[in-house]
Design goal:
The chain has 212 residues and is an alpha/beta fold. The protein has one domain (23-192): Leucine-rich repeat, LRR (right-handed beta-alpha superhelix) (Alpha-Beta Horseshoe), CATH 3.80.10.10. Helices cover 16% and strands 17% of the residues. It contains one helix and eleven strands. The protein has one helix at 2-35, and strands at residues 37-38, 60-62, 68-72, 79-81, 94-96, 101-105, 118-120, 125-128, 142-144, 149-150, 166-168. A hairpin with a 5-residue loop joins strand 2 and strand 3. The longest helix is centred in the first third of the chain and has 34 residues, at 2-35. It is elongated, with a radius of gyration of 20 Å. It binds 2-acetamido-2-deoxy-beta-D-glucopyranose. 2-acetamido-2-deoxy-beta-D-glucopyranose binds next to loops. Residues 24-63 form the Leucine-rich repeat-containing N-terminal plant-type domain.
Length: 212
């Protein structure tokens, strides 16, 4: 009996630092995110760095193990750029940042968010390329990047995303041809409109980055 109790105490002691460590690295990621954003409407006011548990902050949702699974900051009038540390939120399922004034490049580190189901970055001021690393987001169902200032071609690797249901890159400045492989065969033309894209690629005839 004593042995059993001391074993469970030992297990508790072993577990505690591990879970608090991961919670801290997620909290640190949010601090990094916060530090690069400007927030005139004070929607991030509750993001108090002196509170250890970022699960109590507004617009942040956690699972039962205190891992951050949602960031809901749509239509919040925030500007600035995205910190690469966002890629450390390994349990994140929903990244909702649509309808803001966020600019700069989309960090390639977002390709580390293996549990991500939905990434909504539409209606912002993002520039630069769609990261190739997004091809690692195997859980992704919704990827909306429309109404930004993105350039370059659509990474061909994205055609490997088996779960992707909605893909929208309309109203950007993308070039090259529109992929036809994988789920891209089923995305409507509206998902690609208002770019410098050339219509569905005729494989073997024209390189996919033709016109870039
Ligand atoms: C958004 O923020 C700007 C300041 O950057 C402010 O002038 C404007 O009124 C805000 N818009 C809304 C809808 O709150």
């Amino acid at each position: 009996m004593t042995c059993l109790i001391s074993l469970s105490v030992l297990l508790l002691l072993l577990q505690y630092p591990l879970s608090s460590l991961s919670a801290n690295s997620e909290g640190n990621a949010l601090h990094a995110l916060r530090s690069k954003l400007s927030d005139p409407n004070n929607v991030l006011q509750s993001w108090d760095p002196t509170l250890v548990d970022s699960c109590t902050w507004f617009h942040v949702s956690c699972d039962f193990n205190n891992h951050i699974v949602r960031l809901d900051l749509g239509n919040a009038n925030i500007s600035g750029t995205l910190a690469p540390e966002l890629g450390q939120l390994h349990h994140l399922q929903y990244l909702e940042l649509y309808g803001n004034n966020i600019g700069g490049k989309i960090p390639e580190e977002l390709g580390n968010l293996k549990n991500l189901i939905s990434m909504d970055l539409y209606d912002n001021k993002f520039e630069g390329k769609i990261p190739n690393s997004f091809a690692n987001l195997n859980s992704l169902k919704f990827l909306r990047l429309n109404n930004n200032k993105l350039t370059g071609s659509i990474p061909r690797e994205l055609t490997h995303l088996k779960n992707l249901k909605i893909f929208d890159v309309s109203n950007n400045d993308l070039c090259g041809t529109i992929p036809v492989d994988g789920n891209f065969g089923s995305f409507p033309a509206e998902s690609f409109e208002n770019n410098q894209l050339n219509g569905p690629e005729l494989k073997g005839l024209v390189p996919y980055d033709f016109g870039c």
